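>> received
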Amino acid sequence: MKNVASLLILSIITIALSKQVFCQEDDSDSRKTLSGIKSLDISVSDIGQDAIIQRGLTSSQIQTDVELKLRSSGIKIIPSPKQNPTNVGDPHIFVQITIIKTDNDLVAFDVNFELRQIVSLTRDHSILAYATTWRAGVTGLIPLTRSERIRDVAKDLTDQFINAYLAANK
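>> returned
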């Protein structure tokens, strides 16, 4: 009976914690920074969790998903500066995925989707910096058996970016 109660409590906690928290800087000001962008490059952080990779989720898979969605919506993707140094300074999408597997076969995850580009300071336009001008993210806790949900989250954030980009460039 004690094991059943423990299992019930763990199940309730898992369901309660599997909700996701959204972080966004997708407002009218950040959308203005998307206006006029003609092309961009993409990079995805290394997932680096063997338990997740064994379930079929990889950084290259996420990168392919993001690139395919962006290209399908008409956004031109260019090689990264690592592949083509002439692209240094072009707008850049960075998808950062952080995953922590618990001992209970739960996965805590954080997926951030950012657009970074060169900006100038209003007090001195000669000072340029590389900054995040648009961002959206999701943090959550899911069972390891549902780790494909992380891929879905990355796709959903890509859709959110596409909608913001298209609204800014209509």
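>> The chain has a mean pLDDT of 82.
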